[in-house]
Amino acid sequence: MALQDLPPSRMALLGMLLGLLMASCFTFCLSHQNPEFALTSPEKSSTKEAERKETTAEEELDPEVLEVFHPTHEWQALRPGQAVPAGSHVRLNLQTGAREVKLQEKDKFRSNLKGLKKGRRLDINSNTYTSQDLKSALAKFKEGAEVESSKEDKARQAKVKRLFRPIEELKKDFEELNVVIETDMQIMVRLINKFNSSSSSLEEKIAALFDLEYYVHQMDNAQDLLSFGGLQVVINGLNSTEPLVKEYAAFVLGAAFSSNPKVQVEAIEGGALQKLLVILATEQPLPAKKKVLFALCSLLRHFPYAQQQFLKLGGLQVLRSLVQAKGTEVLAVRVVTLLYDLVTEKMFAEEEAELTWETSPEKLQQYRQVHLLPGLREQGWCEITAHLLALPEHDAREKVLQTLGALLATCRDRYRQDPQLSRTLVSLQAEYQALAALELQDGEDEGYFRELLGSINSLLKELR
């Protein structure tokens, strides 16, 4: 049957069916199209997405969901959905994979958590709160911390003001006190006046000399002491009847004489050498003699004129008596060291004059007038020095061996005639051979005892 033969009512029904079929096909095709060609409004879609995210955020920040975690000073595991107070220390445990939290060592936000009890939920809004509400709450939280920090700063500043005074006040006080800084020269004048005052006690005089010794170590200060007459005052102190005054006066002089030719010359002219020798030749406490011997050594070293005067005044006899007295072994080593220094000093000065011509003719002539070696031989120092080799200390033996070597050319025949010296050298040779062997075992190729053994072997070889 042809379509045109159908009745009109059937034709209408067939048209409706065909329309519905076409609409279904069109809808099916649109549903399978690429999303970018979907017939939707971009603005409406973005708005719906934002609303969906905000709804999710509100669900996550729901006061019924967030629970405030109360950290302690021990690490504790943090469960999902728990809120951590600001200022807490959070870490990831690599072994368990869980987040852990604890309080900082100095938690600045502890006071803000006092009102929160364990298990209580964060309640910013009675029902729900938005992200803007959270930001506002955090801002207020930080504001409170800043206020607290400001209070702490003010309290700390107040404490500092209580403990310390402003520099302006200190300057004003110093001006009112009229504080004046003294120069070394002024201090030395004051100390000399204190020492020389008849109203000063013994303790005050000793204290003045003790302080003065500190200043005269400097060459310029020692010369300043000379310029205002203080050096002579101290030299005269050697005549005191108080052993302590003699001791500390000699202490000051020894420091002032050291490597200071100008002061040495003035001391010789002021009678210091005679006074020092008198103290050494008379009964005095051992500490006083130590300081006097120190002053004598400082006066004689590098000063040939003083060495000449020392020999003329019988200085070698004084030292011999000092060494031979009982209980003066410490002084004996110092005397031997002084003699060694004087002998080698003259020898080096003469050699330097022959090789370099740098020594002044006047000074060389003064050294040549110092007949020290003949005086040592005549006064029996060859035998005295040899007998000191029996001292038990290694340091003392070292100094005696050095002096024996320096006197070898003058005392060779005396050494050979002294059987005790030969026996002592042989005994020391055996002792230091054993000690040198121990040094070699310890890996010391050039040890202290090997040097002493070398000096002994050299002397034995010269005396054969």
UniProtKB/TrEMBL annotation:
Positions of the UniProt region annotated as Disordered: 38-61
InterPro entries hit by this protein: ARM-like, ARM-type_fold, Hsp70_NEF-Inhibitors, Nucleotide_exch_fac_Fes1
Residue ranges annotated for the Nucleotide exchange factor Fes1 domain, each copy included: 150-225
Signal sequence, renumbered to the chain: 1-31
Biased composition (Basic and acidic residues): 45-56
UniProt entry tagged with the keyword Signal: yes
Role of this protein: Required for protein translocation and folding in the endoplasmic reticulum (ER). Functions as a nucleotide exchange factor for the ER lumenal chaperone HSPA5.
Subunit details: Interacts with HSPA5.
Protein name: Nucleotide exchange factor SIL1
Organism: Odobenus rosmarus divergens (Pacific walrus)
